[in-house]
C-alpha cells in the first residue's frame, strides 16, 4: 500500500470515529492519532500533500490513485464541494481533528448544495472546490506527461464502464490550458511519443492543446475554449473498441480491420452521450470528426450534412498532429509539408476559413519560437507516408 493510499485509508477511519464518538473517546483519539501519523509520513516524503476528488476518482500529484478507484468517500466529498484538500507541514492532531469535524458535518448535512466554508480557520489545511482562479495563482507544474495517467484513466473508464468522468476530463483540460498560458499565450511544445502504445493518449492531449490554442487565437470566450479542449481530449475515446494490434499494425489494413477503425466515431459518441450532458457537444464532435465538408469521410450518412464547426476544427487539429507524429505505419512529415497539405485540401476535407486561421496561427507561433531560440521552427522528420489508409483523408488521427 502506497503512503498516500495508507493516509487516505486512515483518514477515512478517523473521519468515521469523529462522527461517532465524543472528543474524549479512546476510539476517536486512536483514529486521529493513526491518521496524523500517516500524514506525517506522507509530508516527510512529499513536503506538501494535495488531493483532488473528482467524482469517484482520487488524484494525487497529478496522477489518479488507481487503488482508490470508486472510493465512496471521494464521491461524497466531491458532491459536497470538497474537491481539493491540501495539507501543509506542521499540521497538529488538534487541527486535523477540527478539520475532520467540519468535514463530517458537511457530508452529513441534509443540504446537498451546502458550500464548504474554509474561511482560513486552519493554519495548515486548505480545502474547497477546484477553481480556475486558484489554479492560475498556484504553482502548478505544467508537465504534459504528468497528465498522461489521467488521460489513460479516461480511456480505461470508457473501456470498463462505457462512460467517462466529465470532472476528470475537465481537470486535464484546465492543466493543459494553464500550460499554454504559462508560456505567455504561445502554443507550448506538443508532447512527443516515447512508444507507439502511447499514441492515442498523447494524440488526444496534443489535439486538445491545438484546439484550445485555435480557440484563443479566434478570441473565443474562456468557457468556449474549455469546451473545445474537452471535446478534443475525448474525440478518439471510441478507439477503446479497436484492438491494439489493429491500431498499431505496421502495414496495410484488411477491409475487416478498416471496418473496426471506422466504428470508433459512433462508439465514441455513444460513450460520451452516456457520460452526461456536459459532453453533448463532445459527442457530436466524436461522431463527426472524420466527416468532411464535401460530404466524404466516415461514418457514412444517409443524408450528408456539413459537420458542426467544433467537429471541423478538431478535424484539422487531429490531422495536423497525426501527420507530425511518427507511427508504426506512417512516418512524420515536415511542418511546411503538413501546412501545405492542409491548405490544398481546404474546401474538400477541411473548412477553408478554419484551415487558413490554423495555418496563420502555426506560422505566427513558429515566428515566436524562432525569436526565442536559434533552433528554428519545430519539425518532426522528412519522410513520406509509408501507408495509405483507405479513408481518403489527409491523415487518420
Structural overview:
By secondary structure, this protein is mainly α. The protein folds into two domains: 3-130, no CATH class; 144-372, Hypothetical protein af1432. The chain is built from 15 helices and five strands. The protein has a five-stranded antiparallel β-sheet, sandwiched between helices. A hairpin with a 2-residue loop joins strand 1 and strand 2 (57-60). Helix 7 crosses helix 9 and helix 8 (199-217) packs across helix 13. The longest helix has 21 residues, at 26-46. The relative contact order is 0.08. The model is unreliable at 111-120, 132-141 and 374-393 (pLDDT under 50).
Classify the secondary structure makeup into a structural class: mainly alpha
Oligomer, anyone? single chain
Instruction: Return the string of H and E elements.
Output: HHEEEHEHEHHHHHHHHHHH
Which fold name is given in CATH as the topology of the largest domain?
Hypothetical protein af1432
Name the CATH superfamily classification of the largest domain.
Hypothetical protein af1432
Widest sheet: strand ordering: 3-2-1-4-5
Pick out the low-confidence regions.
111-120, 132-141, 374-393
End-to-end CA span: 38 Å
The amount of helix comes to 40-55%
- Global Rg: 24 Å
Largest sheet: 5 strands, antiparallel
Shape: elongated
Name given to the CATH architecture of the largest domain: Orthogonal Bundle
Number of domains: 2
Number of helices: 15
* Residue share in β-strands: 5-15%
